Amino acid sequence: MLEIRGLDVHYDGIHALRGLSLTVEPGEIVALLGNNGAGKTTTLSAVSGLVRSSDGFVTFDGKEVTRDKPHRIAARGLVHVPEGRRIFSTLTVHENLQLGGYLVRDQAEIRRRIDHVYELLPRLAERRAQQGGTLSGGEQQMLAIGRALVTGPRMLLLDEPSMGLAPLVVASVMKLIADINREGVSVLLVEQNATAALRIAHRGYVIENGTCVLDGPAGELREDPRVAEAYLGGV
After folding, report:
1. Is pLDDT above 60 for 62?
2. CATH architecture assigned to 1-77+189-235
3. Does the pLDDT at position 192 exceed 90?
């Protein structure tokens, strides 16, 4: 469904991605692991059109999107949930969700998608009239993912969804991602919490200095001593 081949990205004098290649098959959750500065966020930003690559290509569902504008990529069903949630703090939960449908012309379809989000996330339904900025960190992350679902994704690009969250909340977020995946949405998951990511992922890639250095099934990566030492606390 998603193919990245030989991707190079330069910005601010930094060679951020160096010939990066990876794939995501339909129905997969693929974890992208690496230390801070390895190029994980840049990878998602390049795929979603927020930064431009200097070489290589990105295809989604067989169509090249390397030079497409971000809104056109989102309209194809490749939807980016950025690091830091980026919700509209002065708008209500419901208004945030409505903005997820900005590319959808059918108002009835927007309402149907929002209702589905409320079914998945009853806590958001309870807080639909509450300003986004007054939600807890976990609720804001749920809202950011819910807003993306209203866009109608076939694949989600999730950037650090567990950042700053308590362990119990992290478990809830990961369960939500797995539930969404079971509904048929593929996921490319950038996650500092490698333990949590590899529990729900089918496969994973490890990147260092902007290039892939290791990949394989999630179970094998969990058992790999190099991954355990670097990303799983040595356990």
Report:
1. yes
2. 3-Layer(aba) Sandwich (3.40)
3. no
Q: Which residues are 79's β-sheet partners?
A: 156
β-pair type (186-190, 14-24): unpaired
Kindly tell me if the per-residue pLDDT of 224 is higher than 60.
yes
Neighbours of 41 (CB within 10 A): 20
User: For 156-191, what is each residue's pLDDT tens digit?
Assistant: 999 999 998 899 999 999 999 999 999 999 999 999
**What residue spans define the domains of the chain?**
1-77+189-235
The Cα–Cα gap between 226 and 224 comes to 5
Phi and psi angles of residue 127, each rounded to the nearest 5 degrees, phi first: -110, 20
Q: Tell me the backbone φ, ψ of residue 115, rounded to 5 degrees.
A: -60, -40
How remote is the C-alpha of 90 from its chain's centroid?
24
Chain Cα centroid distance, residue 80: 6
